[in-house]
Amino acid sequence: MYKYKIYNKLSTSLSKIIDDDTEHIVGYIKKDYSNIFTRFIDLIGDGKFFNSFKIYTDG
């Protein structure tokens, strides 16, 4: 099982994805907005409207 924590639901910074068994980083996840307008609407809605994420593998 993999786990990650997103501390700020409006942040677009990378968060680590960690393998629960080995405790190694297997990739990264970050919130993604298609344009500045969707980000602004999500800011007004406290991060509840747009939930698009990008996954980056580590290797």
TrEMBL record:
Segments forming domain Tubby C-terminal: 2-57
Any Pfam family hit: Tubby_C_like
InterPro entries for the chain: Tubby_C-like (IPR056944)
Record's protein name: Tubby C-terminal domain-containing protein
Originating species: Staphylococcus xylosus
